[in-house]
Amino acid sequence: MKIKLNNINIDKKNPFKEDILERKESVEILTQLISETQDSLVLAIDSLWGTGKTTFVKMWQMHLENKGFSTLYFNAWENDFNDDALIALIGEIEIAIDSFETENSKLDKIQYNFEKIKRAASVLIKNSIPIALKYASAGVLDYDDLTEKAIGEITEKIAKNEINKYEESKHILTEFKEHLENFAKEITDSEKPIVFFIDELDRCRPTYALQVLEKAKHFFNVENIVFVLAIDKNQIGNSIKGIYGLDMDVDGYLRRFIDLNYHLPEPPKGAFVEALFKRFNFNKYFEERTNQSSNFRNDKEHFVSIFSELFSILNFSLRIQEQCFTQISLVFKTTPVSFKLYPILLAVLISIKNYNLDLYKRYINGNIDSNEIMTELFSSKEGKEFLDSHYGNVIEAYLIYYDSTEVKEQLIEKYRDIKDNQDINKDTYRKAEKIISIINDLDFAVAHNVKDYVVKKIEIMDRFQN
């Protein structure tokens, strides 16, 4: 059983072997799109932070390589230490050249063209370095001694240098793009563009993230190169506003750099939960528990079903779901297989804790009752529908059961009144009957201090958190 997951390994022969979120269709749609273009293109894969963009990008990259495309992968966050995004982007190309599978004679041409790119880039980078300070201070030791004439001469010198630098940069940029276009033609045929993936922009410093966008669009805007940006536009939008002000038109700004947006579809409910059970190796743990006692045989089903529903209702990202499983893993590792887990209550409390820590603390400290928890968690349309389902009834009954005595008695009485009402709607009657039945079963099967026991398990888990 694992505590923390490693990144998914993408199988070279079958990139979709671990496609638990059913994103093969999106890969095929996007592959068809870029196969039909020889123009410069910047495509954004837009999805919230923690929704599996990196895995998607790496599956797509492997799929493209299997179809004969040349690809590059640039992790922007890992290169965030660099002050100039252009240096990092060009450096990534140089690293990738060694991996290109091609004839030696063609490789020589590729490297020759790339050296031209580097020379042009070095001039562009040099010209972007401010030189005003150098000119302003050169040969002058005492600023008090500067005469009006001397200041005028220095100012004129700076102005001329800036004009010359601008003219040179404009010429070199044209040259840079020509070399880049020749380079692209050498490493791929005209029907298949180079696909340059840029990932993890969401995690970068705002200034660096925007610099990557700008450099990718302005410097690499040539035929046969497609940029794919894996981004959370909401997060990038915050970066833009942080730099340019809250009134900045984020969409208008991004349209300057991004030609097309593609939104990753939502994965099927429960698919990631099932996959996490497998990847954390929880199945083995539950098999050992079942061997210890048949009373534990439904524990896994309870965890899978409740997590699947709550993760969907509470709109947890894949990353938060994974964090929940890391926390559960710590509980499992500190609980012998022969001990009771109380999976329903544990799953509910872990979910509440990751949804709203303050809400969780107020609940376990007895400052709010089950009515407030139910209102907070299940006020959405999907939440209300869930409360009418089997596991919705189970969770409501559990929360009522662990309420304070006074509130618990009031809610039980409410459902008994519903149950005794002959004119009540059948579905409402069945729900009341089921909740009363579950509470009665808990009276026989559960010790009075179970909630405290489960909370203590979670508190032990907290000692391992950052």
Q: What is the end-to-end distance? A: 21 Å
How are strands sequenced across the largest beta sheet? 2-3-4-1-5
Number of domains: 2
CATH domain topology of the largest domain? Rossmann fold
Pfam family, one: KAP_NTPase
InterPro entries: KAP_P-loop (IPR011646), P-loop_NTPase (IPR027417)
Protein name: KAP NTPase domain-containing protein
Domain KAP NTPase: 28-304
Question: What secondary-structure arrangement, pairings included, does this model have?
Answer:
Layout (H helix, E strand, L loop, with lengths): L23 H12 L5 E6 L6 H14 L4 E5 L9 H13 L6 H24 L4 H6 L10 H40 L6 E6 L6 H14 L5 E7 L1 H12 L5 H6 L4 E4 L7 H9 L2 H11 L6 H15 L4 H16 L9 H13 L1 H8 L5 H8 L3 H7 L2 H12 L3 H16 L5 H20 L4 H13 L4
Write a structural description.
- Strand 3 (194-199), helix 7 and strand 4 form a beta-alpha-beta unit.
- The protein is elongated and about 85 Å long.
- Helix 13 crosses helix 14 and helix 14 (343-355) packs across helix 21.
- The chain folds into 2 domains: 24-263, Rossmann fold, CATH 3.40.50; 271-462, no CATH class.
- With 466 residues, it is an alpha/beta fold.
- It is built from 21 helices and 5 strands.
- Mean pLDDT is 81; it is low at 130-143.
- It has a 5-stranded parallel beta sheet with strand order 2-3-4-1-5, sandwiched between helices.
